[in-house]
Amino acid sequence: MFLAASCVFFTFTDSFRTAKGRLYYGVATLSGIWTFNAGRKKPCMPSDYRLRWCDLFHAGLSLVAFLAFAGSHGDVVACYYPGIPRKVTNSVPLVVGFVVSVLFVVFPSRRRGIGYPFLLQGEARSSRF
Known about the structure:
Elements: H1 2-9, E1 13-17, E2 23-29, E3 32-35, H2 53-71, H3 74-80, H4 86-106
Antiparallel strand pairs: 1-2, 2-3
Helix pairs in contact: 1-2, 2-4
């Protein structure tokens, strides 16, 4: 349960850089970003960091993918649904993973949360598109 909740929580995390280049992390809310360590620091454009429908879509997809992979573990299968053929329990995570991956590619997230590699962004660190 904790892992599923953390999977959903981390889809709502985001980050921004201040004018001095300092990196701040936070959680997207309906009113903007709530930062963990910045106190009253806010990004230049707070409206870019609001919670949107696509964030809920990404959280739902992340949860579905996590549940598909966790539910296909051998011990979980043996405990909760032992009558399902092995072919089904082996192919469901592959199909779900493929569909979720395609949807993530077609509808990418603009969130740059905890663990996102900022070195790969180049000079567009604080810009939004």
